[in-house]
Amino acid sequence: MKRTFEVTPWNIVTHDFKPEDKRLQESMTSLGNGYMGMRGFFEEDYSGDTLNGIYLGGVWYPDKTRVGWWKNGYPDYFGKVVNAVNFIKMHIKINGEAIDLAKDQFSDFELNLDIKKALLTRSFTVTKGDAKVAVEFVRFLSVAQPELSVQRVRVQNVGSNKVDLVIDSAIDGDVKNEGANYDERFWEVLSTEQGTDSGNVLAKTTPNPFGTPRFTSGMEMRNVTDLTADKVAQPSEKEVVNEFTGVLAPNESAQLEKRVIIVTSRDYDTQAALTDAMHQLSDKVAGQSYDELLEAHEQVWADRWNKSDIVIDGDTEAQQGIRFNLFELFSTYYGEDSRLNIGPKGFTGEKYGGATYWDTEAFAVPVYLGITDPKVTRNLLMYRYKQLDGAYHNAKQQGLKGALFPMVTFDGIECHNEWEITFEEIHRNGDIAFAIYNYTRYTGDTSYVLNEGSKVLTEISRFWADRVHYSQRNKNYMIHGVTGPDEYENNVDNNWYTNILAQWTLKYTLQILKEVSPEQAKKLNVSEDEKKHWQDIVDNMYLPYDKDLNIFVQHDGFLDKDLKPVSEIPADQLPLNQNWSWDKILRSPYIKQGDVLQGIWDFIDDFTPEQKKSNFDFYEQYTVHESSLSPAIYSVLAADLHYEEKAVELYERTARLDLDNYNNDTVDGLHITAMTGGWIAVVQGFAGMRVRDGKLHYAPFLPKKWSHYSFRQVFRDRLIEVDVDQDGSHFKLIDGEPITIDVAGKPVELSK
């Protein structure tokens, strides 16, 4: 655990700059608006260690899969997000010397991410020779105009001598990905145009041999300043720069605003159309003041917070954590574009390649259902439907029928290069099916499941029916050679979570097939023989169980391990993944994240209190929570079992996972999909929210460390406010028609 920022309710702020923590600070001050995002790296020159990362939604590159031993079925390429053309770049010179905080003497440092307004501010006072200036940077990525990046820099002479000031505002196409093979570049600059106060760069991703699309991006800057614009030579064929100069007397200041419009070929068919749009959008924002642009941006964020804010009194650490999580989650995705999804790192780093994982369906869908319009979640479901062709391809590569949705993808084709994850962690097919059910159960909207969703369910079921095998010895269907959610176990047989999801998916699909229209049933073309076979699998699926312990066994052989609890591991050997060999981890009983408990969370109302208790008590002692997705699920189950202290402990871990760098890996970027965990722990855990037979149920408790908490929840065209304090729980209908909810077993009528 390492804390580098102060604890405040609405701000991620520090007054301490340590070069060794710069990447950590960059991750935690990342900005995004769904369309694009960036790490909190410095605009100006910095010669120390840094990761200058800017990423555009849906823009990626297929890098050749490189493995030591090629196996039939491997994907040809590994997809990765492309580090975009650097459009926030600046050089600032004082009396001819560039400001560089890796070398300069400076004071009064402040780095402040205002998560209420989505505004990043950085300021410091730098001394260079006999010159002393105060510098302030402000930046935001507009959610009102998603193609717009806005920066402002102010420089004030706080010394006693005049200062010669030069600010170069640039767009630089000479960028690389940190994890690129052989240090190659992924952008070819097509054209540049440099004026005195404006400029643009058009660049296209380099050719690839896999037939995947190449992407063109266009960046156009316009600068507004009280400095003098000087005409300068273009620095290179890949970069454009505008130079502004002035002389500051003592106490005088100067200001520069940099507005950049970013467009991509995802939205335009031709380069000419893209270029025209770039110019038109630049003209549009040029007619608005900085204050007008900022106000429009802040208003959208205010509307989002009005629906989603969770208020916690009595524990500022808990308050900061949940708001930071929601802020970064919404900065990554808010459902505007059904072609996009939620990558585990979002726009905050290059790890995991910026692709889509099963995290979306398992962890993000429950949250977006609760705090956004249902169309946001429907877009996430449509994302998978539109990629069915890729899922067919993935299954066919393994010689299997139906559809295998990818573990990692941009376009539906599997693009991950670790076999034990890519083609063994097939539970994601069941997670996608469960998300369809979850959406339908929560919203009451059957239009998706009876149409596009029924197609997805049918093809997933065909995959499961082909992937299982029948054991003549045990007279059961089994699934061998898989990896469950606990990735510290690879190539196991009969992972309970995988098996129960396969069984459940087949059962749910059979139910939906009875409800679809005759026209849809004809399109799906599921034969009676198929249905009988699916039902036979449902009736005879093997689910590992130990009657003495009354637990569902994670997989065959798990109980034969050397079962010693995590408490016996020396503290200096944690995290295991940074201290133990992979061989030692695989042989150990230690669980990366909920596996059996993931399934119990999914189907929490289907198990008895005794079953939940015995499984939680058994598996919790072996769980190291080295997946960011883990603590929230355990927190909900602990709350369900009235283990209130454990529930709060695990909430704190999930809510402050990145803020306190629990797993010592936030330097690579934030754990965006895990930022759903705080909401899940509060709403499903502390408030006990469940949906049963179309009705909302709550069973709230107040953590001892808190004096009060409240949240708002979207449910079937209503907005409901839940307020829990030392006097009990209180509910209010903010918007929508009257509704009856259940609170601790008693009906409560809500109306405005």
From TrEMBL:
Entry's Gene Ontology BP terms: carbohydrate metabolic process
UniProt binding sites for substrate: W358, D359, K592, Q593
GO molecular function: carbohydrate binding; glycosyltransferase activity; hydrolase activity, hydrolyzing O-glycosyl compounds
UniProt-annotated stretches for the region Disordered: 197-216
Positions of the Glycoside hydrolase family 65 N-terminal domain: 14-266
Domain spans labelled Glycoside hydrolase family 65 C-terminal: 689-750
TM segment ranges: none
Glycoside hydrolase family 65 central catalytic domain: residues covered: 323-679
Residue ranges with Polar residues bias: 197-209
InterPro entries, A to Z: 6-hairpin_glycosidase_sf, 6hp_glycosidase-like_sf, Gal_mutarotase_sf_dom, GH65_N, Glyco_hydro_65_C, Glyco_hydro_65_M, Glyco_hydro_65_N, Malt_Pase/Glycosyl_Hdrlase
Domain of life from the UniProt record: Bacteria
Active site positions: E487
Keyword annotations: Plasmid
Similarity comment: family membership: Belongs to the glycosyl hydrolase 65 family.
The protein's name in its UniProt record: Maltose phosphorylase
Species name: Secundilactobacillus paracollinoides
